[in-house]
């Protein structure tokens, strides 16, 4: 029999003896059969002699109390959104003890307004939950273990995955795999090593965007900036404690230049906040998802083949299905953190009247957030209808501000914001640059805005769909960086300009920019090799995740759907996961917005600010650029 500890709950392997049943084992350890089934799902089909069961051990006073007079109780009236977990935390008692004196809670959920008995006299004998290091391993506080990671063992619970376990112990999935070789699939009851104190000097964290670095004796800020290839300001921005001086043994967070390809300038207010480490509210959340599935049209088709053909033809429906798959993956991921979500899904049919009908004919009381609809008109209709009730409507894809609605949460920055952030970047880095603006007829307003922001820039006006090669060459300057800004939607102009600039790049230092990467840039007529050679820069709402870098969401999605998630599936995950985590750090979504902070997930970053007309708008924008290997990198 092996006894291990995980978060102060003791477990044992019990070897089943001849004639034993789950019920007899439960009585022996003074636990319920349901607790055994949770840890051993296969036991529902029966147990065999000599098989192993993971059994939770009771507390010091876990014998049944048959006489209520031996226990002091407090009557509690259940309030809205209270759970057994929140009550156990409030009264410092075990969930099992609450159930033991309120038998109906073994099979029923808490009901608002009902009165239950809390065994308050058991408080004195219940241990406070703490993590207990396994005695087989000792904490290594040597310089080789800068993060002071204690070695522990963890019993895998039902539905737990490697991602959730790695987050619990603040280690990477790679380290978890290294500590447990050969463990590909987790099963309830498995005992995993979760740390062994052997940590490298530089540890990759945050999906490869950052690393931890251990400061050694005699190192200085100057030597670190030279060795790590980052500026002093960036180093202090990521590590505010450096303002008080550098000390040997400090663990610094540094950007992973091998991943980003360039140094990114960070300031303290740009630090990414990990909301998983701030969870304080475990109340079950009520989420409504509104998307235009158009089920009435799909169901009216006579064959599966026709239904598939209709889905392929309908771009909005494809987006909805992809986005929905990401939403459900986010809800599953939140479960691994102990966050429960009740979800209701409605088909808006891409119709404002249908949105109004859904809200009028369904109970929206207690809803914490509505995710969707995805179109501007239906999203604004939902927000307007729910405004008086104060229910947040989270718009995942709309590009325009919805003025006058304080319950409208726009997750996508506007196109104007993308333009402004790119122009700001150009202005900040204008010293010594020769600016050339190439804008087609549809971008005359953009050309004027650029000329006003970049005095001295030379503007070229293409005739029709052609760019004059001689004009382009004469506008460039040898011996100086030539920053060419290409604006327009004409595929002819874009293709012509990028081709000419590529042919001149061997003789001139050319970098290509745009303030608005239209769909025309994705045309097959425009060579991505040309864009790569010109180090094409553009503003973006999202970044492109690396398909060869391990990511829990990506790998889980591919395992479930046997396909790589597209940008809409990733956005569904990122938007939903962020909303669930924000709700887990406050009483409401509006409350969570009082602290302006920045979060980041697979492809998307969120930094909400209140708009003058009401509501909240995500202001987080990336500046992306191609490197020489045709890969996109985050520049800012």
TrEMBL record:
The keyword Transferase does not apply. InterPro entries: Leu-bd (IPR028081), LysM (IPR018392), LysM_dom_sf (IPR036779), Peripla_BP_I (IPR028082). SUPFAM superfamilies: LysM domain, Periplasmic binding protein-like I. Keywords: Signal. Residues 12-55, 74-118, 211-254 form the LysM domain. It comes from the Bacteria. The keyword Signal applies. One of its GO terms (molecular function) is lytic endotransglycosylase activity. PROSITE patterns: LYSM (PS51782). PANTHER family: LYSM DOMAIN-CONTAINING GPI-ANCHORED PROTEIN 2, MEMBRANE-BOUND LYTIC MUREIN TRANSGLYCOSYLASE D. Belongs to the leucine-binding protein family. This is LysM domain-containing protein.
């Amino acid at each position: 029999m092996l006894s291990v500890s995980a978060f102060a709950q003791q477990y044992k392997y019990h070897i089943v003896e001849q004639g034993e049943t789950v019920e007899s084992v439960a009585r022996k350890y003074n636990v319920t059969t349901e607790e055994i089934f949770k840890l051993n799902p296969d036991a529902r089909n029966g147990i065999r002699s000599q098989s192993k069961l993971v059994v939770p051990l009771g507390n010091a006073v876990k014998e049944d109390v048959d006489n209520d007079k031996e226990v002091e109780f407090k009557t509690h009236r259940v309030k809205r959104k209270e759970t057994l977990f929140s009550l156990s935390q409030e009264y410092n008692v075990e969930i099992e003890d609450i159930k033991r004196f309120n038998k109906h809670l073994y099979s029923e959920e808490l009901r608002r307004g009902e009165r239950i008995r809390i065994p308050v006299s058991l408080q004195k004998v219940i241990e406070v939950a703490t993590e207990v290091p396994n005695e087989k391993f000792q904490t290594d506080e040597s310089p080789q273990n800068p993060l002071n990671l204690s070695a522990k063992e963890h019993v895998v619970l039902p539905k737990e995955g490697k991602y959730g376990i790695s987050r619990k112990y603040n280690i990477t999935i790679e380290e978890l795999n290294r500590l447990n070789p050969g463990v590909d699939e987790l099963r309830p009851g498995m005992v995993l090593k979760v740390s062994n104190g052997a940590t490298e000097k530089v540890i990759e964290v945050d999906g490869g965007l950052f690393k931890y670095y251990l400061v050694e004796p005699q190192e200085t800020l100057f030597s670190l900036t030279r060795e790590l290839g980052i500026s002093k300001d960036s180093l202090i921005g990521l590590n505010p404690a450096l303002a008080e001086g550098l000390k040997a043994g400090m663990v610094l967070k540094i950007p992973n230049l091998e991943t980003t390809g360039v140094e990114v300038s960070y300031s303290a207010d740009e630090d990414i906040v990990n909301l998983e480490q701030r969870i304080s509210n475990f109340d079950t959340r009520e989420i409504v998802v509104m998307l235009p599935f158009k089920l009435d049209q799909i169901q009216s088709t006579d064959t599966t083949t026709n239904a598939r053909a209709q889905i392929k033809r309908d771009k909005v429906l494809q987006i909805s299905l992809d986005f929905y798959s990401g939403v459900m993956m986010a809800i599953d991921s939140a479960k691994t953190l102990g966050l429960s979500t009740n979800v209701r899904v409605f088909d808006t049919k891409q119709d404002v009247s249908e949105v109004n009908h859904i809200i009028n004919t369904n109970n929206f009381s207690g809803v914490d957030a509505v995710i969707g609809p995805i179109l501007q008109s239906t999203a604004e209709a939902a927000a307007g209808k729910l405004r008086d009730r104060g229910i947040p409507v989270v718009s995942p894809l709309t590009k325009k501000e919805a003025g006058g609605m304080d319950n409208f949460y726009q997750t996508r920055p506007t196109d104007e914001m993308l333009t402004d952030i790119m122009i700001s970047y150009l202005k900040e880095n204008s010293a010594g640059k020769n600016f050339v603006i190439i804008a087609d007829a549809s971008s005359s307003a953009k050309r004027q805005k650029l000329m006003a922001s970049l005095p001295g820039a030379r503007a070229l006006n293409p005739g029709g769909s052609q760019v004059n090669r001689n004009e382009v060459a004469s506008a460039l300057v040898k011996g100086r960086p030539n920053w060419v800004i290409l604006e327009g939607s004409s595929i002819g102009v874009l293709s012509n300009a990028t081709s000419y600039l590529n042919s001149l790049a061997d003789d001139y230092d050319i970098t290509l920019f745009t303030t608005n990467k239209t769909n025309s840039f994705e045309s097959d007529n425009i060579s991505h090799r040309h864009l790569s050679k010109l180090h094409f820069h553009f503003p973006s709402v999202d970044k492109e995740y690396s398909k060869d870098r391990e990511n829990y969401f990506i790998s889980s999605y591919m395992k479930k759907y046997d396909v790589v998630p597209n940008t809409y599936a990733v956005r569904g995950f990122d938007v939903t996961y962020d909303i669930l985590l924000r709700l887990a750090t406050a009483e409401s979504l509006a409350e969570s917005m009082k602290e302006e902070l920045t979060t980041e997930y697979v492809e998307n970053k969120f930094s909400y600010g209140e708009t003058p007309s009401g509501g909240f708008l995500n202001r987080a924008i990336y500046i992306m650029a191609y490197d020489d290997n045709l890969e996109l990198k985050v520049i800012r």
